[in-house]
Amino acid sequence: MTPRHLALAIGLAAVWGVNFVVMQVGLRHFPPLLYAGLRFALAGYPALLLVGRPQVPWRWVAGVAAAIGVGQFGLLLMGMRAGMPAGLTSLVLQAQVVFTVIFAVLLLGERLTARRATGLAVAFAGLALVAFDFGLSGPAGAFALCVAAAAAWGLGNVIQRKAAPPDSLRFMVWVSALSAPPLLALSLLVEGPPRLAVPAEGWLSLAYVAFVSTLGGFGVWGYLLRRYDASTVAPYTLLVPVFGLSSAALLTGEPLSWPKLAAGALIVAGVLYAGSRPRSRGHASLSPAPSALRTPAPRP
């Protein structure tokens, strides 16, 4: 990568990492399902005027909207509202890689190699350490909701990989547009009539997650993928929990315990190991990740 593109990749990871703290701020003023619905409405509907059709069959757009827009973000925000800290949430969501591989094996018939299984076992050990550490002081239900959100994300990744959209930004605009109505309907059913008279802080949070994180983030992501292989760009998304944990510690005072740091190291190391190929002919090489690990970027 050129220095400019490297800065873009790291900056994108920072934007998506800080996003967890921003969402935590927004949840002080909006119930979770309403917050998710408004996010996707703001990100999707204005942008529909600027993009064409999604260039893939509608069933794939609807599938990703159901799995990621409604499933992942609905569960994620409910988990955060129930007590899951922002930084820890950014780390737990990396379990989506484990679920992506599981769903790819079950639904697409992909082969689970010994190396990939070992890497995922290491990542799962990190997740178990998070569960143990958080379970001593935090609500188990909130943790379970975030793990379920990671599972929904993994399913959405497999659907999106099957769809193979040629333009990730255009695809996410349509996914956002299709995600908003069911989320807003669920909010009305579960959370009651919306109350939109909230402080400016709440609306600024929504503006950040809709325009900076979603539209701006996927604009940069698509720009980088048009110039580099996915295996070159994707590893930088592993910096998302680094920025998520550090920003939560700096901005909200969320503690960085040794178990949390050790869990983060296990999860990142496991994912990297699972996505690499063994040394061959005396040379170390990191090849493109296996297809099940070539997942879309995190959508925090």
Description:
The structure is a single chain. Helix content is 70%, strand content 0%. With 300 residues, the chain is an all-alpha fold. The chain has one domain. Helix 1 crosses helix 11 and helix 2 packs antiparallel against helix 8. It is globular and about 55 Å long. The two termini are 24 Å apart.
Primary descriptors:
mainly alpha
Radius of gyration, CA atoms, in whole angstroms: 18 Å
Bulk shape: globular
Treating each run of at least 4 consecutive H or I residues as one helix, how many helices? 12
Return the domain count.
1
* Class by alpha and beta content: mainly alpha
Strand portion, in percent?
under 5%
Q: Calculate the mean pLDDT score and round it.
A: 82
**Proportion of residues in helical segments:** over 70%
Main sheet properties: none
N-end to C-end Cα span: 24 Å
How many strand segments?
0
Order of secondary-structure elements? HHHHHHHHHHHH
Low-pLDDT residue intervals, each spanning 5 or more residues: 282-295
Topology:
Blueprint: H1 3-26, H2 32-44, H3 58-81, H4 86-92, H5 96-108, H6 114-135, H7 140-163, H8 168-190, H9 200-225, H10 230-233, H11 240-252, H12 258-274
Helix pairs in contact: 1-4, 1-9, 1-11, 2-3, 2-8, 2-9, 3-7, 3-8, 4-11, 5-7, 6-12, 8-9
